TrEMBL record:
This is Conserved domain protein. SUPFAM superfamilies: Periplasmic binding protein-like II. It comes from Cellvibrio japonicus (strain Ueda107) (Pseudomonas fluorescens subsp. cellulosa).
Length: 351
C-alpha cells in the first residue's frame, strides 16, 4: 500500500484556512464547504500553532479539488475537535488514529499520512524490553500518542501542552520515557537547542493517520467518503519508503528472533511437503487458487482458509505475534513459489 509521509501545513493570518474550488455543474447549487479542524502538529502545541514550518497539506487540497468540494480548516486543541465532531459543529478533523471514543459518531477515512513512532528516553538509562510497567510515561495532552497509550493499557503519568515541554520533563527526570513521531521529536530538540546525544530511541511502530468525518455529515453526503478514499492515492506525491536507519533498526530488532523462528519444529517438514506439491501446479492453477482465496476474503468467507489457520504452525505464528506486543502485526510463511503455507491471520490473497 502506498502512503504519504507529508504533514506540511501553511501558517496564515488567523486560525482558519479555506480552499476554493469550482463546481462543474453551474446549473446546480454548489455543495457547502466541508468544515474541518486540525491541531497543526501535536509535536508543538495542543492549542495554537507556533513556528513557521506549518504549510497547508497539498495532499488534502488535491483530494478536495478532484472531488469538486470546497473545505475550510480551523486550528483548535484536539479535545475540542473531538467534542465539536461529536456535537456536529464541525464535519471532521485530521489527522487521527482509530479511536474507540470517536467511532460511535464518526468514521475514519483511509490512511492519509504515516507517522514513525519511537520511544525516547535519557541516554543514562538502561532501556527495558517494554515500557509498560514501572516507568513514568509522558505525553502531549489530547495527542494521538496519549489516546493510543491509554487505549492500550499504559498509564500516562505526566502531560504537557507540547513536545518541547515534554522533552524538558524528560531531561529533568520528571518522566522516564515518551512516545513521539521521530521527525517531531528531533524538531523539538532543535527548537530547544538541546543535544540529541542526551537521548536514546527505539523504533516502535508505523502509525497510519486519516480524517475522521462525523456520521451526520456522511449521511447527508452518502458518496463523499467513497470518493475521498478513492482519491487519496491519486493525489499522493510520493510513496512511503523506509530509511536506511529504520531498516537497520528493524534488522537489529528482528534478525535474532527470525533465526529462532526458522527452527520451529514443524516448519522444515511442512515447507518440503508444500514445495513438492506446488512445484506441480501450473501458472493458471495458481492464479485460480489465488482468485478463489481473494473472493472468499472479500466475502468474509474464511472456511476456505480454515485448514491453514488451524494447523499447528499457524498457531505458533499467532503466539509469536502475541508475544511481540504490537511490534509484529502479521506473519506469513510461503513456499518457494510464494503460496501461503502458514499464516497468523487471514490474508487478503493466497499467492
Amino acid at each position: 500500500m502506498r502512503l504519504i509521509l507529508i504533514i506540511i501545513l501553511l501558517l496564515v493570518s488567523g486560525a482558519v484556512w479555506s480552499s476554493a474550488g469550482k463546481n462543474a455543474d453551474l446549473d446546480k447549487p454548489a455543495p457547502t464547504a466541508v468544515n474541518l479542524a486540525t491541531n497543526i502538529s501535536s509535536a508543538f502545541s495542543s492549542d495554537q500553532p507556533t513556528g513557521d514550518t506549518q504549510q497547508l497539506l497539498p495532499h488534502l487540497r488535491c483530494i478536495f479539488h478532484k472531488i469538486n468540494r470546497d473545505f475550510t480548516v480551523q486550528v483548535m486543541p484536539w479535545r475540542r475537535a473531538y467534542q465539536d465532531v461529536k456535537s456536529n459543529r464541525i464535519d471532521g478533523f485530521f489527522t487521527a488514529i482509530p479511536m474507540r471514543q470517536i467511532d460511535p459518531y464518526a468514521v475514519l477515512s483511509a490512511p492519509l499520512v504515516l507517522e514513525n513512532w519511537y520511544w525516547f528516553w535519557r541516554s543514562d538509562m538502561i532501556a527495558p524490553e517494554s515500557w509498560r510497567e514501572g516507568y513514568r510515561l509522558g505525553s502531549i495532552l489530547g495527542s494521538q500518542q496519549e489516546t493510543w497509550l491509554e487505549e492500550s493499557g499504559y498509564t500516562v503519568d505526566s502531560t504537557a501542552n507540547n513536545l518541547p515541554q515534554l522533552v524538558k520533563q524528560l531531561r529533568s527526570k520528571r518522566i522516564d520515557v515518551l512516545l513521539a513521531d521521530r521527525d517531531h521529536f528531533y524538531q523539538a530538540i532543535k527548537e530547544l537547542n538541546a543535544d540529541a546525544g542526551q537521548f536514546s530511541s527505539r523504533f516502535f511502530r508505523y502509525v497510519p493517520l486519516g480524517v475522521y468525518f462525523n456520521e451526520q455529515f456522511l449521511n447527508s453526503n452518502p458518496q463523499f467518503l467513497v470518493a475521498f478514499n478513492r482519491t487519496i492515492n491519486d493525489c499522493a506525491s510520493q510513496g512511503f519508503s523506509v530509511s536506511d536507519y529504520e531498516k537497520q533498526q528493524i534488522r537489529e530488532l528482528l534478525q535474532r528472533k527470525i533465526e529462532r523462528w526458522k527452527r520451529l519444529p514443524a516448519l522444515e517438514a511442512l515447507l518440503i511437503a508444500r514445495n513438492s506439491l506446488s512445484r506441480r501446479l501450473s501458472r493458471e492453477e495458481i492464479e485460480a487458487l489465488d482468485k478463489h482465496w481473494i473472493t472468499a476474503f472479500k466475502n468474509s468467507d474464511f472456511s476456505y482458509a480454515i485448514r491453514m489457520t488451524d494447523q499447528e504452525l499457524s498457531a505458533q505464528l499467532r503466539e509469536i505475534k502475541k508475544q511481540s506486543m504490537d511490534v509484529i502485526t502479521e506473519i506469513i510463511v510461503t513456499d518457494a513459489r510464494g503460496l501461503n503455507v502458514a499464516i497468523s491471520d487471514m490474508t487478503s490473497d493466497y499467492w
